[in-house]
Amino acid sequence: MRNILTGKTVRSLQSAILGLALAGAAGGCNSSTKTSVSALPADVKSIMFLQRTPRNDEGNVFDYANFVPGARLVTLSPPSADGTLTVLTSDPMFDGSDIMSYDISFDATAVVFSAHLAGASNYQIFSMNLDGTNIKQLTEGGNDYVYPVFVPGGQVMFMTNRNVEADKDASSMQFRDEYERATTAQVGLINADGSGLTLGPRNVSHRVSPALMPDGHVLYTEWMHMGGVNEGHLRMVNTDMTGMKEAFGDELAASNASTNSYLKARYVQTKTFNDPAAGPIADYQLIAIGTSRDRTLQSGKLLLIDLNGSEANSTARDLTPLIPGDRTPSSQGIGRYYDAEPVGASAPGQFLTSWSDGPVESEELARANSTAQFGIYVLDSGSGTRFPIYNDMNYWNILARPIRARPEPTNLATPVNGTGMTVGALNVYNSSLFTVPAGGVVKVRLIEGFSGEEGGVDMFGTTEFDGQSLYGEVPLQTDNSFAATVPANVPFHMQLIDKFALAVPVSGSHGTAAGTPVANEDIWISGRAGEQRFCGGCHENRTVPSSIAPGVQENVLHGAVNLDVPRASRVSTNYTYGNVRGVPWDLAIQPILTAKCASCHNGDASKSYNPSYTVTDMTSGTMQTFVFDLRGTKVDVTVGSRMTSNFTASYLSLMGLGEILGDDVVSITGTPPNYVQAASAETSSLITLLNPPQRFPAVDTSVRLVPGVMAHPVDVGGTELTPDEYYLLGLNIDMGAQFFFRENLDEYTN
Fold first, then answer.
1. Which range (525-534, 542-551, 608-617) has the least confidence?
2. Domain range annotation of the chain
3. Of 514, 534, 453, 520, which is closest to residue 492 (Cα–Cα)?
4. Which of 90, 195, 481, 600 is deepest in the core (most CB within 10 A)?
């Protein structure tokens, strides 16, 4: 890495920047016009913030690359409109550059930041002293390195689109997100001197906005995408990129906070929470932006979050209830917040914030040929008063931080040794969020996830799920434990399956993306090579120590089932049990439908068992009628925002148009398909109609999913499905009811 010498720091005075009268409320609280001379406490003598050239649409809020030249890092001393502004990035090398994020060192003498230099192709990480000297470029090459933060042990954590698997498998590509198919950002580490770059495990979508917690964990936002789950949740990871776990958002918070993504979370204070089962525990309080997934320029409402030890106990308080949590344009005097940083213990309840008035919604701003204007303020969350600090109208003034030393937390690095990642549970029935009937679980199914990087697929099907591939199904031990080794650095999720080889129905608050109560984990998990991760159960209360019965755990005694095979081997060799990986619709499912179903369900609308419906697209003015048809003929779909000819009549008849319709407004005459609940085969009417027999521990045709009911198509004189055919249909549905899998990606056409 290169060391760069620099000249003296340039100082520039800004005069009379903010004679601004604040109109309206701070998003639901009263606000008043005040000068900024004494808005911050006396111990905050200087602040740093980022000035970026105003821009409009950044796509979804997890996008990290939006180059517009002209950014700079500055300090303001004292932190008021008439303070002295010092431009830290005054070296000519930063002329015409863009800077997207930064962090201040523990001793407050250095800064690390991500900059896209003029003429370069990517964002790289740089560091320098706060006097502008000792500039170092820490990363280089053809990838983006963004969101750097100092972590214990003389290291910097960051996010990058560099692929951790590429070194060992040249055919592996970095994931592309589910909507814009932008290359996703994943976690990495580097020493502060630029040596020792190490990449961490991946997720199918972005990981962004890391922040260090006082206990040494790093908090970050992860785009949680699996089917209908489409949210940005807060997660935690150790400083060596092991132990990724949920922090806030998955089970509770989204419905309570009237928003779907939590961004740029920052630690506020440590409190005490009295857990009914565990007693007093440390409660970390956070401030975060609550926002819609897109069109909001990464800005939104302010949420005060109490983690309370586990997601089952976590809560959120909306400090700005008048600010919309979705992508509705905000109104004049309400605006949106870009970020918030606690002022400190000397001023509890006060936050350095970036706020912009007006609509702050990309489409509304584009119609007005305008941009948002973020300025620096201090918000008193108790009174709702917003005090202006600084606003240069030529820039977005964002990410303000007090410049002061802070303790360096404990380094939470843990030993890793091996090539795969081992995962397991002590008792799969132990859950604080759902209840599985006693004896209902037979095996644990582990499923790999991938995205549009394989085959250039924009839609794997109509149900909004990305690509999936079966790792395998691990038998549950007699003490209800299990353990398995899966490929490292690759996302996977788990399902508890029953004797019918279907995801187990449960009772409680947890469910699939569609809200169907089955034991389907609707988040992706990933771990480093050699990492071992065991939990007490499936979403157990993590504030309560897991109890282990006397004796040796069965999963330890029998060892982890090895499911770690190379990527090239993770395709179906045939579609019999034990050999199937993906369940491509035309290759694995269509032969079943052709042999057992299509002679009757052939698109003949004159037959009562072939219902039809008509879709009128109010956006395009087109109209199309669909008739129930289980043949394998490809259908040209001309309605909706994602017109396609990739899918067959049988697939569309059972799954419906779903994602094809997109944002278009449509009118539907007749009843569209409702035969399949993606990721929930056992509660899908198609499966209950077919009425499969027991599969485990052995096939038993006398035991049926729906007792006492004749299976279809036997009830109409047809031929019953074989055990493998039942299994393939159930597996396809439980894995998201998709058309495309690895085995048939070459058929996809854009």
1. 542-551
2. 3-166+174-402, 586-747
3. 520
4. 481
